[in-house]
Amino acid sequence: MNHSATSTPEAHSRQVVLDRLRGRAVKSPGLPEIDPDQLIQFDDRLTQFEQTLELVGGQSHRVDSPQQIAEILSELEEFRSATCIASTVPEAVAPTVDLNAIDDPHDLAPLDWTIARGEFGVAENGAIWIDGDTLPHRVMIFIAQYLAIVISREQIVDQMHQAYMRIGTPKPGFGVFVSGPSKTADIEQSLVLGAHGCRELQVFLLP
Amino acid sequence: MLPIVDHPEAAKDFVNNVPRSHWHDDALWFVRVKRDRQSQSLPEWEYLREQAATIKRHTIANLGDYLQEFEANAARLGAVVHWAADAAEHNRIVHQLLVENNAHEIIKSKSMLTEECGLNEYLLEQGIDVVDTDLGERIVQLRGEHPSHIVLPAIHIKKEEVGETFHEHLGTTAGESDPQVLTEAARGHLRSKFLGGDVGITGVNFAIAETGGIVVVTNEGNADLGVSLPRVHIACMGIEKLVPRFHDLGVFTRLLARSATGQPITTYTSHFHGPRDENSELHIVLVDNGRSQIRDSDTFRDSLNCIRCGACMNTCPVYRRSGGHSYNATVPGPIGSVLGPSRDPKAHKSLPYACSLCGSCTDVCPVKIPLHHQLLAWRKVLVGKRLLNWSKRTGMKAASVLFQHPKLFTLAGYSGRTALRILPKALTHNRFNEWAIDRDLPKPPRQSFRAWYAKNRTETQPEDTK
């Protein structure tokens, strides 16, 4: 905080709030450490991941090569008819949009598909960690009508504790766990896929 | 100051519509059952609750230090941290930021804090319209209502009513009530709002002291879309949203969605560490608004553990039947009945009584807030503050006199038994006796317990007391 700000009402409030909190000492329990032995572990993390992903509305495919990804996608009508594709996995799907040539994220509004790379999956909840550093524009994950994520099937952790340990110290910027397609149940608890983000999530599991 | 609204009075219309009350009850129980399925799928569920409660207690005890650690780390990442002592200051800060950025189109994802502060109304008075982008919140906003639940804002509204609202505001076909079609219409309508937004406002689910980052979770992707397009992101958070360490998120992301909607995790769990790029801005507004006072109380401090999952509402027999609006508070249900009186005991004095003390809320709470104990404790506080209403106060006084005078007690018992026997139903069941609505009076016993005891136990001592 700079010097000129110390006399502003906000700086005053900052002091007021901190004084209130410091004015009353409260007995504090120690900060606990998680005991890994207490946590669920799956015999077959990959299968668990696939099953959970299906439960949350996503679809998964075990593939042996990036070419196979293109083959599976081209069987989908919504992919065949796509004209605007962003891809950070060019060995699987060639992009139609040059992401590096785009300055304004609004220009990605017409995106039909985004093909992105995931770092790892989480067996207990079907979530995939996407590192923002791999995305020229983070909006590509949310604005595309359909989303495909490519991860290695060797890279599946059991649960979120392992997931956060694996991320370690987060880099400045952005990172997101994606578990299934965008959804809502705000109208009478009826589940509808495709709220504001992707209508469909295809996950490709490479060796 | 809020008008004093009695919960039973405010719930009357909702409760009297029996089919609707049952429909509401069933909808929430459905969510509760989904929650049970998820919590039971994890052998470590109770262990996680214990960890979460301890982490939160530790954080709240050391809140001043953690807030400063967060502030320093967030600033290092390029975010601007603002401090608001109360709701009015929060609103002024946000308004100022909007003016500085010449912003007219505001897109906001779900934030109970901005509801608590009345941000939308405040900005509207300043001529700035805010579009709520969560589907449920957009529905209630278009209807000129407020959310009736913190996770499921439109849980009280039927799909036919949503259809009418969308027909009026979004031009959908009259009579359309298919959730799929209505959601698609909202998607199209809100896409244009997202693309036209000058500033994105979000709440915060967790803020991490150690890293200076914030976490926002949604299923719809509205928070993420809303802040990935405009240059400016304003994140508003209560000061209790902190966790000390990055890996503490492991505990809370496992508990939150399972408790809230019975999902293993929300669709999107977004982690923001600093602004998007050098041309963008991230502002984080830290709001006290009464939280530090709650922290002062040994009895009610644990209510600051709350991660706003709504599980206590979904399980509460009173909430399920009376609807969220009957609480006349931003946060309804059991946790709202604890937090409301903390904010304004007089305005919310009836809420701690909107509770049967069944304890189900305490059992499901993922951060182990002893909710029903706190509701009982509030009743004591309200009596101490002389805020108990007249009928309860007189009743309590009368009972006290009765129990202090054995002869009077005997006489009252005799009169009661006799009255029950001889009074005609027309006299006991009339509009002056509210208790007798839907209830029958008990059959009077032939004799009092004392008379029975005198007859059966005074001549010969029972075996075991010799």
What's the total helix number of chain A? 6
Strand content of chain A: 15-25%
Secondary-structure-based class of chain B equals alpha/beta
Strand order of the largest sheet of chain B: 1-10-7-4-2-3
- Share of β-strand residues of chain B: 5-15%
Largest sheet of chain A: 5 strands, parallel
Helical segment tally of chain B? 22
The coarse silhouette of chain A is: globular
CATH superfamily grouping of the largest domain in chain B: NagB/RpiA/CoA transferase-like
- CATH homologous superfamily annotation of chain A: NagB/RpiA/CoA transferase-like
Order of helices and strands of chain A: HHEHHEEEEHEEHEEEE
* Count of separate structural domains of chain A: 1
Total domains of chain B, how many?
3
Roughly how much helix do the residues of chain B carry, as a percent range? 40-55%
Low-confidence stretches of chain A: 1-5
Task: Sketch the major β-sheet of chain B.
Answer: 6 strands, parallel
Strand order of the largest sheet of chain A: 1-11-6-3-2
Greatest interface and its residue counts? A-B, 77 and 91 residues
Separation, N- and C-terminal Cα atoms of chain B: 64 Å
